[in-house]
Amino acid sequence: MSDINVLVVFYSRYGNAERIALAAGVGAIQARANIRLRRVADHADAKTIDATPAWRQNLDRMNRDYVAPRPADPQWADVVVLATPPESCAEIESYCVLLPSIGSMRGKIAAPLAARDEESVLKPIYASAACAGMIVIPAKLESGDPITGAREYGQRITEIARSLKKLSQV
Amino acid sequence: MLTLRKAGDRGHTDLGWLNSYHTFSFGGYHDPKHMGFRALRVLNDDRVAAGKGFGAHGHRDMEILSYVLDGGLAHKDSMGEQHVLGPNEVQAMSAGSGVIHSEFNASSTSATHFLQIWIVPAIEDLKPSYQQFGYPSSEKRGALRLIAGPDKSSHPPAAFINQDARMYAAVLGAGDSVDYTIRPGRYAWVQVATGAFDVNGVALKEGDGLAVSDETALRLRGANGEESELLLFDLA
């Protein structure tokens, strides 16, 4: 078993944030982490979702592939990837705000990630994660291709978590 | 030496949507005496309820084979592969450096029964890959049909796996038999998928497994009124 646990939490309507979340998850596995993948629920009501067929279709599919985060998940995790689409960070921000009420998040790594690497979308998530006592590591995707960038980010945050864990054991 | 692993002694997980029997330690079932056999690490006998399945999750460094006995399995992974697998097909996924996948019952009305097999690869950090191919069921009737092995160009075609291991399937009627020669230094595992067999005088029923060491040959004989199906693993 790996020494690092990475919880990949994402919110996605049309699959873009899901893709970067999966890429970050694959990167974490490549860096030999254990991972869990979770999708947070929509804030929008069913009527709003139904009005956009592509949203409804993707939601039905994603509800099959992923479960919502469970209270034990952030406690298990050393790293929490928080992936959001550029059009709405409210769902991920709400999840982040909720985290301290589940248990102490102090010293865990928060890894916010946006489908189009837009820092302005991520700022509320940075703030909520920092308020929860988490160590925020901005994505700063180095590769031009967002999928490759997210995968490399998944590797990097796992390696950082491993280094921090070793330091804490000295 | 032949060592029987009785079906009733296997680990068991019942999640409502999943009824799974574990020949070797898996998930919440852990028995240090049953951690695998040679490179064969996992052999799960899974029944998945209609419309249900295994959500997205990750693996690395494992050769994962799915062998459907009844129903269909819908596969999707982070390599972009999306397929439905049925009986007389084999799915071989090499997790290599890392892959995320989901497996669901492709039917919304009936259960799926399949065997999930994990083989430890000889090399780590390989590029992930996915293979799926079908074969005529006649090729495994009364014969051992190679399903997966380490040869990239076997005839008839078989899935390539990154390990010195071969998986065969056979369907035999009552009294029908096939012989298999075990080369010196090799081991074998026999798993009864359906029905019943007699293997070198040992009676096996559905779900039973047989670890084979220091033997030179196997005689596999169908012992059921109807057809019986088994998997044979030839292992280093």
Features of the shown structure:
heterodimer, A: Rossmann fold, 15% strand, B: seven-stranded mixed sheet, seven-stranded antiparallel sheet, 22 strands
Please describe the topology of this protein.
The complex is a heterodimer of chains A (170) and B (236).
Chain A: E1 5-10, H1 16-30, E2 34-39, H2 46-50, H3 53-65, H4 72-76, E3 79-84, H5 90-102, E4 109-114, H6 119-131, E5 135-136, H7 146-169
Parallel strand pairs in A: 1-2, 1-3, 3-4, 4-5
Helix pairs in contact in A: 1-7, 5-6
Chain B: E1 2-5, E2 11-14, E3 18-22, E4 40-48, E5 53-59, E6 63-70, E7 73-77, E8 82-85, E9 89-94, E10 99-105, E11 112-119, E12 129-134, E13 145-149, E14 159-160, E15 165-172, E16 177-181, E17 187-194, E18 196-199, E19 202-205, E20 209-212, E21 217-222, E22 228-235
Parallel strand pairs in B: 13-14
Antiparallel strand pairs in B: 1-20, 2-3, 3-4, 4-11, 5-10, 6-9, 6-11, 7-8, 7-10, 9-12, 13-15, 15-22, 16-21, 17-20, 17-22, 18-19, 18-21
Please tell me about this protein's structure:
The complex is a heterodimer of chains A (170) and B (236). Chain A has one domain (5-169): 3-Layer(aba) Sandwich (Rossmann fold). Chain A contains seven helices and five strands, in the order βαβαααβαβαβα. Chain A has helices spanning 16-30, 46-50, 53-65, 72-76, 90-102, 119-131, 146-169; strands at residues 5-10, 34-39, 79-84, 109-114, 135-136. In chain A, helix 5 runs parallel beside helix 6. Chain A starts with a strand and ends with a helix. By secondary structure, chain B is mainly β. Chain B has one domain (2-235): Jelly Rolls, CATH 2.60.120. Chain B has strands spanning 2-5, 11-14, 18-22, 40-48, 53-59, 63-70, 73-77, 82-85, 89-94, 99-105, 112-119, 129-134, 145-149, 159-160, 165-172, 177-181, 187-194, 196-199, 202-205, 209-212, 217-222, 228-235. Chain B has a seven-stranded mixed beta sheet with strand order 1-20-17-22-15-13-14, with no helix packed on it. A seven-stranded antiparallel beta sheet of chain B has the order 2-3-4-11-6-9-12, with no helix packed on it. A four-stranded antiparallel beta sheet of chain B has the order 5-10-7-8, with no helix packed on it. Classes of the chains: A alpha/beta (170), B mainly beta (236). Chains A and B meet through helix 1 and strand 2 of A and strand 5 and strand 10 of B.
